[in-house]
Automatic annotation (TrEMBL):
<feature type="domain" description="N-acetyltransferase">
    <location>
        <begin position="3"/>
        <end position="148"/>
    </location>
</feature>
<dbReference type="InterPro" id="IPR016181">
    <property type="entry name" value="Acyl_CoA_acyltransferase"/>
</dbReference>
<dbReference type="InterPro" id="IPR000182">
    <property type="entry name" value="GNAT_dom"/>
</dbReference>
<dbReference type="Pfam" id="PF00583">
    <property type="entry name" value="Acetyltransf_1"/>
</dbReference>
<protein>
    <submittedName>
        <fullName>GNAT family N-acetyltransferase</fullName>
    </submittedName>
</protein>
């Protein structure tokens, strides 16, 4: 499996929207699609697309706020048939490394759900808090941090 990562391009939008919908409603509430598309419009330069054997299989964003030395991961998802293959782990590690390379962040935050928290916990993220039914009914907010 040949995995590459590259910066989001406008031509990726439709395919990422389709993959997002494949992860709804388990990982995302249907009403979050508009938020995700708006995110791409504003922060697309910090969104990474995962490509396996020439095919887009998912993506994830990252951000850095130098004012408080905080980095973060956002809007990560994969095609369901690529979940559990190691692509997600490589995508997360790639984005963590992008943040680390800047030298501006001391911690990396992720706000995820109960469905994905275990994945981030295996990467070293520590749970800060959780809130029931935050994203939508049945999808809880898990806030976690990774110390750099």
């Amino acid at each position: 499996m040949d995995i590459t990562f590259r910066t989001y391009e406008l031509s990726d939008r439709t395919e990422l929207e389709e993959i997002f919908l494949q992860n709804t409603p388990k990982y995302f509430a249907p009403e979050e699609l508009g938020d995700f598309l708006e995110y791409l419009d504003i922060f697309g330069d910090d969104y990474v697309v995962a490509v396996v054997d020439g095919r887009i299989v998912g993506g994830g964003g990252y951000w850095i706020r130098s004012s408080d030395h905080q980095g973060g991961l956002s809007w990560a998802f994969l095609r369901p048939d690529f979940q559990g293959t190691g692509v997600g782990k490589e995508l997360a590690q790639y984005r963590i490394e992008k943040i680390r390379e800047t030298g501006l962040a001391k911690t990396i935050m992720v706000e995820t759900s109960q469905h994905s928290f275990g994945f981030y916990e295996k990467l070293g993220f520590k749970l800060l808090s959780k809130q029931s039914d935050y994203w939508s009914k049945g999808i809880d907010l898990y806030s976690a941090v990774l110390e750099l």
